[in-house]
Design a protein that fits this description.
It is a single chain. The protein is of the alpha/beta class. It has a domain of 225 residues: NAD(P)-binding Rossmann-like Domain (Rossmann fold, 3-Layer(aba) Sandwich). The chain is 41% helix and 18% strand. It is built from eleven helices and 13 strands. The chain is globular and about 55 Å long.
Length: 323
């Protein structure tokens, strides 16, 4: 297959692209290499992909419809995996416009390119943040997602609705994947587990928002990538959770990080942000049924691999900004 992966230098995009390349697909990756977090992370990920002969990288932005049009003139794609997104719940309160531009208009641009150029398959990366604060646990795909708590979640909801519309009108086969708290080696430095590893390693204060008793359905990046590749199969229009189905209490994740590093954390508790939910938990029955997918990596093993990667890359990763 020839596949367009947007956000190919991002955390999930990098791992998805790598797995596609390893199985022999032709991949065109596009990423705007923005500075939302330290760009050294994207540069490192991208460098690991450049050795594949079946990989073409284009620095570009999915909000630029004319540039996308030219890309589709030069390439014919069997599928699009749209992993380009402005991420971050809290940051979306500071600049909601850029979230709307990338997550909504960017998705619309790609759907239009799919329609105009006959691309049959579209995979959209969405988020567990859509479930908000009022749905019962575990979260299932038919839960009410009409009350998102952040502009980030609201933008992803809009992208999902656009995908539904384009499936209905034009028959594009769409799989929407709601990811749950993805972590692992070369992960985002604004996420809690990366910060825990770095801050404890350096003896810096470890900031915990709230009382630390909130629960997160941490899901290892390799498992997420496997599920994303599985979602390339034709199934009509479906929304599917990808999560571990085993939530972890945040303070327990911190204690395990201490054990793996052999150092104690100097914890500082800060008020919980109003856009942060108290718990996430993925019901994954639909992923099992439709994609034959289950997570394979236990949390302790995934965290151990994150710690090992951090130590192996300490010469440069020590300078990555986590603020």
């Amino acid at each position: 297959m020839k596949i367009l992966v947007t956000g190919s230098a991002g955390f999930i995009g990098w791992k998805v692209t790598k797995k596609l390349l390893e199985r022999g697909d032709q991949v065109v990756g596009i990423d705007n290499m923005n500075t939302y977090y330290d760009p050294r992370m994207k540069e490192w990920r991208l460098q690991t992909l450049r050795g594949f002969k079946n990989f073409t990288f284009i620095k570009g932005d999915i909000t630029d419809y004319e540039a996308l049009g030219q890309l589709f003139k030069n390439h014919s794609f069997d599928a699009i995996i749209n992993l380009a997104a402005r991420a971050g719940v809290r940051a979306s309160l500071e600049d909601p416009w850029i979230y709307y531009d990338t997550n909504v208009r960017g998705t619309l641009n790609l759907l239009e390119c799919s329609r105009r150029n006959g691309t049959k398959k579209f995979v959209l990366a969405s988020t567990s943040s859509l479930y908000g604060a009022d749905n019962p646990l575990p979260f299932h795909e038919d839960a009410n997602t009409d009350r998102p708590l952040s502009p980030y979640a609201a933008s992803k909801k809009a992208a999902e609705v656009l995908c539904s519309t384009y499936h209905y009108l034009y028959g594009i086969d769409v799989t929407v994947l709601r990811y749950f708290t993805v972590y692992g080696p070369a992960g985002r430095p604004d996420m809690s587990l990366f910060r825990f590893v770095k801050w404890i390693s350096e003896g810096r204060p470890v900031i915990v928002y709230g009382n630390g008793k909130q629960e997160r359905d941490f899901t290892f990046v390799d498992d997420i990538a496997r599920g994303t590749l599985a979602a390339l199969k034709p199934i009509g229009y479906e929304v599917i959770n990808l999560g571990s189905d085993k939530p972890i209490v945040l303070i327990e994740a911190l204690r395990l990080t201490e054990e793996l590093l052999g150092k104690k954390a100097n914890v500082e508790f800060m008020p919980r942000h109003p856009s942060d939910v108290l718990a996430t938990w993925a019901g994954i029955g639909k992923a099992e049924k439709l994609l034959n997918w289950r997570p394979e990596t236990p949390f302790e093993e995934g965290l151990r691999r994150l710690v090992a990667w951090y130590r192996e890359n300490l010469t440069w990763v020590k300078d990555v900004n986590t603020s």
